[in-house]
Amino acid sequence: MHRHNEDLLQFIWQHRLLKPLPLITHSGTEITVLHPGELNSNAGPDFFNASIRLNNLVLNGNIEVHIKTSDWLKHRHQQNSSYNNLILHVVYEHDVNLAQNEKYHVEVLELKPLIDEATFNTYAQLSSEQSVIPCQSQLSAVNDLKFIAWLERMTIERLESKTERAEHLFKVFNGDYAQTFYSLLLRSFGFHVNSEPFELLSKHLPLTLLLKHADQLLQIEALLLGSAGFLNEPSSDVYLHDLKREYDHLKLKYNLSPLRKELFKFSRLRPANFPTLRLAQLAALLHQHPGLFLSPQRYSSYSELKKMLSARPQGYWANHYLPGGKAVERTLTMGKASVDILIINTLAPFFFFYSKKLLKPELTDAALALLNACAFEQNAKTRSFSAKKELLPDAACSQGLINLHDRYCIKKQCLKCGIGASLLSISHPGYSS
Questions:
Q1: Between 326 and 171, whose confidence is greater?
Q2: The whole model's pTM is what?
Q3: For the stretch 384-415, what's the b/e string if a residue is b when 16 or more beta carbons lie within 10 angstroms of its beta carbon?
């Protein structure tokens, strides 16, 4: 990207990345910037609420930034009265005197002699970098405290983005917190590959119906597996025969119709992640801990949640992956990595969502504490930041990195990123850590 980039100039102005020289306007007047202003991402002047001192007079108002002064005419600002109340016109290169600036006594400040070449070079390196993480080769130079501070912000931003689904489901379910949580948890039980059909099942089989039968494990297993379409075929196995009979009875009683089992994927999955086993594990959780679904906010301890989510399937599902499949020799309990995924994708975001809804900041703290207790997620996105791996102990960090990767790095939004800002500041002659 060419150095004459208006976003870059706005960034330089906002962060005051200028040489330590007197600021002299085109007319020869010295100014002092008391506050560069607040960046405006909407229509109108680039910065609001700026403050400068000019000839011992303090001016408060708006500032416009351009590559060249003549861009004012190209952008047709002369036809927009919202640009009449500027206190300063900042440009990279002053190439024309504007009648409007003269009419309203607006000084023009040229930045060209005030920007160090190193700032342009650092930005050019970031914007032309071919790797997914533009700053990957420079990351080790970023101050650790600044890196951690930005990462904490990214973790919160990640939680905020995850609550968007909770907000949507909350509206779909007419403000039912329990059904919203149940739907989010079922989606997570699909473990990405089957997340969509599992969420569909939650809408097809409401929580209130399941809780009516929470004390009868066979009936919960029948409702979940039958509604998912896995009990349509007759079986000579005694348990499966009883399970199908139970579902057929409940289907008539509640006027249920099963989903097509073809919606659920098995190919390329490890048997431990087969949707049939996940549904059996969910049934065990519902049977043993129905309170989790009614009031999840009461269970904010990682150790307690880990124990609950590791609920062992009983009977047939203690050693079967599939209806009618061969028995295996080990007990098919939810592993720690899977438990962490459920906490990361459901419990922590739901607590954050619940905190915002009920204005209970302690639940935001609980959400972050759960992420702090979960293991750091090792994947292609998080491994890209290995230069700072000694600062990355838990899932709060990995969730922050995933957000940083998805919302900033791959979109080359370096000027909106705290790490990019730090690198550009390092290149500035007046930089101090």
A1: 171
A2: 0.86
A3: bbebbeeebebbbbbbbbbbbbebbbeebebb
